[in-house]
Amino acid sequence: MHPAFSVVFFTTATGAGYGLLALLGVLGPLGFIAPDFWPGFVGMGLALGLITAGLLSSTGHLGRPERAWRAFSQWRSSWLSREGVASVATFIPAGLFGIGWIFLGRLDGWVAATGVLATVGAMATVCMTGMIYASLKPIAQWHSPYTLPGYLIFSAMSGSVLVNALLQGFALGSTIPLAASVLLTLLGWGWKLATWRYNDQLEIQTNANTATGLAGGTVRSLEWPHTEENYLLKEMGFRIARKHSAKLRRVTQALAFGLPILLLIAAFALPWPFAAVSSALAAIVQFAGMLVERWLFFAEAKHTVMLYYGR
After folding, report:
1. What is the CATH number of domain 5-309?
2. Helices 147-169 and 259-269 sit at what angle, rounded to 10 degrees?
3. In the predicted model, what is the mean pLDDT of the chain?
């Protein structure tokens, strides 16, 4: 698949934003964060800012962005439409939660209830984003048992690292959020390695013979379907060299997982404000690494329509 930057940024930013929002919605009412103005303003502003930026960037891949609203009408059959509905609906409890926290200084009662609803909405939206890709049977690398859990794991991982950076920045950090961010990053690393191993050993059973039902020889096209590149070749026929894929996988492991873990471990031993700086760097580096990971997620996918072109 052709990795358009708008979609790469969309999946990375919304995953981190919804992960942060989901954790704020439960950690605040549980007492891990004080109901103060600045932690609430920065935390909710960052979460909703990432979500909004990601949703807006997704329209950049549309031929007619002004018609994006029509996608909401297909919620009965389309995971993309369900994602859009869920993302907009989540803004309601998230907004009320932010108002109660920032302007009223409360994280109890109805504010806590809206926080839980925002958490549920964030998790549901991430699930629907994952199902957009997991439901596509023609792309075997996506239609696998690793895709949907991977979206949830990476969202929780990115959100936990951002929460830790927020707490450390306001000198509210404790070992529990810091340790959780390290463990979730390790889980994400392991899940990504398992996903790559599964995809590399994947044997696609379909070929030109099985697609046409012909046997007794090798089916091949006598001539190309058309004389120049079209939408299918541009969007579905992108190919990445194996050496480039291996290099980018190493970059992903270093930026998205390895270096953030080292920076988070360093935060255990460093006093404030050095622990806050180390935690912030971990969040920034991980976001950059997840951009590379998402690019590979699209670039390494192979659509079976390419059988029509002899690949």
Report:
1. 1.20.1630.10
2. 30
3. 86
